[in-house]
Amino acid sequence: MLPALPGFDVRRVEVTGTTLLDPQEVLRSSGIRKGQSVWEAVEHWETALERHPVIESAHVTRRLPGTLRVEVEEKRPVAYLTADVLVPVTASGERLPVD
Predict the structure, then answer these.
(1) Rounded CA separation 23/48 (Å)
(2) What is the C-alpha to C-alpha distance for residues 63 and 22, in angstroms, rounded to an integer?
(3) Which residues of the chain, if any, have pLDDT below 70?
(4) Which of 11, 18, 48, 60 is the most exposed place for a label (fewest CB within 10 A)?
């Protein structure tokens, strides 16, 4: 990680790849906060995102000077179970916790 350099604080985060999740939920799950350095290790943020039960994979890139791009691939539902509400389910039978 490069040391904190003036002008390289996170000012904007772009989230792509979401259909099931709200981008704000992705941002909260990442641990990315405005004011952090864009030079922090992206692997930490990617690992945090991949712990989310709906995210299959995540990739974080930098767009200098102050933007991070978060690209996520969500797990794909192939069916919906009927409960009190419809619950999306993956091909492996995993229930996805989404509203």
Answers:
(1) 15
(2) 22
(3) 1-4
(4) 11
Q: How far apart are CA 58 and CA 56, in angstroms?
A: 7
Please report the pLDDT score of residue 65 as a whole number: 93
Q: What is the pLDDT of residue 23?
A: 96
Strand-pair category, 86-89 with 79-82:
antiparallel
- Those residues whose C-beta lies under 8 Å from the C-beta of residue 47, and which sit 6 or more positions away, are none
Show the beta-strand stretches assigned E in the chain: 12-16, 55-63, 67-74, 79-82, 86-89
Instruction: Note the pLDDT of residue 91.
Output: 93
Tally the residues of the chain. 99
Structure tokens at 31: 């641990």
